[in-house]
Write a structure and sequence with these properties.
Layout (H helix, E strand, L loop, with lengths): L3 E5 L9 H6 L8 E2 L2 E2 H11 L6 E4 L9 E3 L6 H9 L7 E5 L7 H14 L3 E7 H7 L8 E2 L4 E10 L5 H11 L5 H8 L1 H8 L5 H12 L3 E5 L12 H12 L1
Parallel strand pairs: 1-4, 1-6, 4-5, 7-10
Antiparallel strand pairs: 2-3, 6-9, 7-9, 8-9
Length: 247
């Protein structure tokens, strides 16, 4: 597959990650899962899916693995993604993260083919709550509720072209106002916020509406695999991931 791949592996400045503390390492990408650094699972999945190195990495030393090459790094994941996308990276671009050791070639193939079929400028991989909770009823995920379903992100994004970068720019503007509803409404658009809070749109309709606001096309890609939405954000997540991999 002819895709540029960007792995986000940065850490927020001034924030001590409890997972790193627990593992006795300085960087989240090398937290061991069954003795193997997390980022190795991601690299193996990418290669097994037919994607060709070199893979761009942001916020981490590319000398760690010969399959990596440097991408710009900024203060947070969204800023780093934007910096990398604006640095001359060839499109289309697949973006994932270093903390997804459950990533598999199957997930990647479903997502990439789905994004290409949609033909949108920007796509995000999502999994439905009913699928995740059926398989892992005790896991805690963040869900977005829509008219037809509730979804959780899968740390997979497809930027088809330069127009698709606008979705990353919008999120960068909006995320600083997460706890300020009025400013968030101004950043996203009051109509978008009302549509979401009233549950009047389906997930695909919401993506399309956001795309219209940005002057692009945007779509979700549903991945019917519960593990696609499980990354390692907390010690509890790490335990669950290791249990899943053991099976």
């Amino acid at each position: 597959m002819s895709l540029s791949v960007l792995i986000l592996a940065g850490q927020r400045e001034g924030i001590i990650d409890p997972l790193c503390q627990e593992a006795g390492v300085k960087h989240k990408a090398v937290i061991p899962i069954h003795g193997e650094p997390m980022i190795r699972y991601v690299l193996e999945a990418l290669e097994a899916a037919g994607l060709k190195p070199l893979f761009y990495v942001s916020g981490f030393d590319p000398d760690y693995d010969e399959r990596l090459t440097q991408a710009p790094s900024r203060g947070g994941p969204t800023s780093s993604a934007l910096g990398a996308l604006e640095s001359g990276m060839a499109f289309p671009v697949l973006i994932t993260t270093c903390d997804h050791p459950l990533l598999t070639p199957g997930m990647l193939e479903i997502f990439i083919r789905g994004a290409q079929k949609e033909g949108a400028d920007f796509c995000a991989g999502v999994a439905e709550k009913k699928i995740i909770q059926h398989a892992y009823p005790d896991t805690k995920r963040t869900y977005l509720r829509f008219k037809d379903t509730s979804i959780s992100g899968c740390n997979l994004f497809y930027i088809a072209n330069e127009k698709g970068v606008e979705a990353v720019r919008l999120w960068q503007r909006a995320q600083q106002f997460r706890k300020q509803p009025l400013k968030l409404a101004m950043a996203l658009g009051l109509d978008i916020l009302l549509n979401y809070t009233t549950g009047s749109l389906t997930a695909k309709e919401m993506f399309a509406r956001l795309g219209q606001k940005m002057g692009i096309t945007a779509a979700p890609v549903f991945i019917p695999i519960p593990e696609a939405a499980i990354d390692v954000d907390t010690p509890v997540d790490k335990v669950l991931v290791e249990e899943i991999l053991s099976k």
